[in-house]
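User: Can you recover a sequence for this backbone? Please restate the input before giving your answer.

Assistant: Of course. Working from this structure:
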C-alpha cells in the first residue's frame, strides 16, 4: 500500500536489517527500541491492524506466533518476552500496518 512505511520495508524501498523473512511475514529491529531486544514481526500482506483480522487470517497469525517462538529461541530470550500489538491511535498505534512487537532483555513489569 502507498504511504505505508512497513509495506516499503517489505518491498525494499525503505532499508531495514531483516532478521527473518518468508512468504508470509518479515521481522526487523525497531528503530526506537524500548528494550534491549525489540523487534517487529509484520505480515507481508497489508492489514491495517488487528481489528481487521478475520477467521481467514488464522493461519497467518498462527504462523507469525510460531516465527516469534523460533526467533526468541534463536536470540536466547525464550525464557521471558512480551508480544504486543497496538490497535488504533488511542492504543498508541503509529504505523497502520499490523505488527507484533517482541520485547525482552529487561524487567518489563506488569499490566494493571
Ligand atoms: P506502533 O506504535 O504503531 O505500535 O509501533 C510502530 C513501531 O515501528 C514503533 O516502535 C517505531 O519505532 C517503529 N518504526 C516506525 N517506523 C519504522 C521504520 O521505518 N523502520 C523500523 N525498523 N521501525 C520503525
Ligand atoms: Zn502496509
Amino acid at each position: 500500500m502507498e504511504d505505508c512505511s512497513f509495506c516499503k520495508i517489505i518491498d525494499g524501498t525503505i532499508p531495514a536489517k531483516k532478521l527473518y523473512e518468508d512468504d508470509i511475514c518479515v521481522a526487523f529491529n525497531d528503530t526506537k527500541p524500548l528494550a534491549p531486544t525489540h523487534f517487529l514481526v509484520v505480515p507481508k500482506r497489508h492489514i491495517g491492524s488487528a481489528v481487521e483480522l478475520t477467521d481467514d487470517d488464522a493461519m497467518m497469525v498462527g504462523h507469525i506466533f510460531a516465527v516469534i517462538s523460533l526467533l526468541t529461541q534463536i536470540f536466547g530470550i525464550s525464557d521471558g518476552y512480551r508480544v504486543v500489538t497496538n490497535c488504533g491511535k488511542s492504543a498508541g498505534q503509529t504505523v497502520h500496518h499490523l505488527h507484533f512487537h517482541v520485547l525482552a532483555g529487561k524487567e518489563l513489569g506488569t499490566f494493571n
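That completes the design. The longest strand covers residues 37-43.
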